[in-house]
Hints:
elongated, DUF2269 family protein
Amino acid sequence: MAFKLSMKSKQFIVTIHVLSVVCWLGGAVCMLTLGSHMLLADNGEQLYYTLDNMHVVDVVLIRYTALVALLTGLALSLWTNWGLFKYYWVAIKLILTVALILFGIKYMSDWLSQLIHEADGKRAAALHDAAFLSTSYSLLGGAAANILAMVFMTAISYFKPFGKIKKRSGKHETKLTAREER
């Protein structure tokens, strides 16, 4: 029989999971707020330090808490009756979590680094650069997408919609057919 968590262990991991998601969501809200503030910067120093603060939020509130959310979610799925691919809502959360993490690594981190580099060199003049603004809007859109995805994942965790994933196995269907013939 597969390993199952005790009630206390499950409660502890759920607590860590929820706290990590709250931190991740809070970090995404901070990124969106700071990103909006960045676009209204009055001078080059304010622009640069706002972006620098966004980098701190990314490292402290997003990167590691997203990883903790993924790992605790995997533990809860594998070591409880939910399973990874027994219910649609669990599978959707897994896919979205991995997608958000990969999107953050591949795009958002690069966008933020690029903006910091440009703001460091150009200061306030960066706000008049079309490429800088385009990247800024992409970063804001990514933060908004993170927020929406996490709110959606929270909702499906609570409501548990869509039901069980039905197994499609040729062997299973053959056994049912053979039973039906008897």
